[in-house]
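TL;DR need structure tokens for one chain.
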Amino acid sequence: MHKVTKNLLLLMCLFVAEYAAIMSVTISKLNSEWHKQSLQFFMLVVLAHWAEHLAQAVQIYALGWPRPQAGGVLGLFFPWLVSSEVLHYGYALVMLIGIWMLRKGFTGLSRNWWTVALVIQFWHHIEHFLLQLQVIFHHNLLGSPVPVSFLQMVFPKSRVEIHLFYNSIVFIPMIVGMYYHMFPPSEEPAATCTCSLHHQPVTSMAA
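>> reply
TL;DR here they are.
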């Protein structure tokens, strides 16, 4: 039995080591020769999410729909999905992972702005994590009839506006970071990907 346990532990260690090696290579490529394509795909996801929030705002403020019925374009076809905290938390997590995984491809001023977006998105993820916990444990904070985030405790009827606010303060530093990534200041070395207009030869990033 002891030998079986030892072999299992050895296999687990080998698996973890192999997984870590694969992830290291993947992240290196994502931040060098794959950086431009990865950013383009990531921004498509971000813009699609923005479109949903803007559609929801139009439904409320321009069309006068009741807030529970204003679920964006996706909510027209899958209202149960839009009202689920799993969807919102899942997207917040994808955003956090995406910003983090693509961060090493940025340098200098662009990395500073991208890091600002990462920090804000981390807090945004905490807000959604809090909402998800209330759903899991069937206990809403402050006796609220619905799950509430920290900011909703102050503005309980402004969930749509809060989401627009969070997405805006994450999106703005992302755009500024991408601008400086594509057009780096002359005193800064260009990144090792093909995103910059004056890029260096592509090499994988080991750091």
